[in-house]
Amino acid sequence: MSPRPQGELTVERMCVLAGVSRAGYYRHLRLSLPRQEETVVRDAIQRVSLAKRRYGYRRIAAQLRRDGLVVNHKRVLRLMRQDNLLCLRRRPFVPVTTNSRHEWRVVANLARGLVPSGLDQLWVADITYVRLLEEFAYLAVVLDAFSRRVVGWAMETHLRADLAIAALQMAIVARRPAPGSLVHHSDRGVQYACCEYAAVLEMHDIAPSMSRIGNPYDNAKAESFMKTLKQEEVDGRSYRDLKQARDAIGTFIEEVYNRQRLHSALAYRPPAEFEAKLSPIAATAPVAPAMSGAFGARP
Q1: Which residue in 60, 76, 88, 179 could disulfide with 205, CB within 3.0 to 4.6 Å?
Q2: What is the distance of C-alpha 173 from the center of its chain?
Q3: Which CATH superfamily is domain 122-291 in?
Q4: Cβ(131)–Cβ(236) under 8 Å?
Q5: Cα 100–Cα 296–Cα 108 angle in degrees, nearest 5
Q6: Which of 198, 186, 104, 176 is closest to 141 using CA atoms?
């Protein structure tokens, strides 16, 4: 059988022209083909790992097989280790930010069924953790439920009440809500139930409201913001210390989330733009019927 032609020339003729033996050509071919195939696999792994940052080696292997490559998960793991490709993983330890077992007074849930029709009728508050290089920091936020805007926030390396109070005071200074017009909703955490926090609310005639036990949906807007913050800013970042984290997260809140990020609930507008386009009447509209009696029900 004659050698398989390569274009118009046979392998034998090309070897003669190149001054190499046929045996040497086939030895080179056997060595180069695996390297070429491995390069193709490495490239595919990198593309998948960049597109799906949370995929581990098993899922990447499955995706490559769906794409037509013949690989197993052990080979994918070996190549990912060589190329230093690591997926983003959930943290093995999640510090507790809500301590509901306390002796402070727990107030009724005034936000359930409440439909705000203007700004500064319902604020929602929550606390989350942020991992630093050698410790944890904690972020307290206050959002306007109507515009989804973060109106107050504070970040420290402790969970004392003054963390939540600092975020609340920032919101009060920024918004100056009319006395008796605002409901403040949070979980039952000790930071929100303690007398110091309650005193600030009472001083400004803000009605407190707390979620039902074990029901995160009562504070869904605050939970949604925390999820966005983790996905779009915190995950994949490494903060050296509190100052670096505070600067980065503060920029995300004030410049990205409040002023640039499009919110589907706001007809794909940023909160700052949404608020700016509200008419003076809409901005201070009376509460919707679902809110009627909320302030009168204040404990």
Answers
A1: 179
A2: 27
A3: Ribonuclease H-like superfamily/Ribonuclease H (3.30.420.10)
A4: no
A5: 15
A6: 186
What residue type is 226 in one-letter code?
Answer: M
Beta-strand runs (E) in 163-262:
183-186, 207-210
101-120 tens-digit pLDDT: 546 577 777 878 788 999 99
End-to-end CA distance of the chain: 97
- Please count the residues of the chain: 299
Residue 81 burial (C-beta neighbours within 10 Å; 0-12, 13-18, 19+): exposed
- On the question of pLDDT at 79 being above 90, the answer is no
Among 107-111, 157-161, 208-212, 251-255, the range with the most confident prediction by mean pLDDT is 251-255
DSSP 231: I
CA 55, 60, 65 angle in degrees (round to 5)?
A: 150
Q: What's the token pair of residue 202?
A: 């009472």
Enumerate the domain spans of the chain.
Answer: 5-82, 122-291
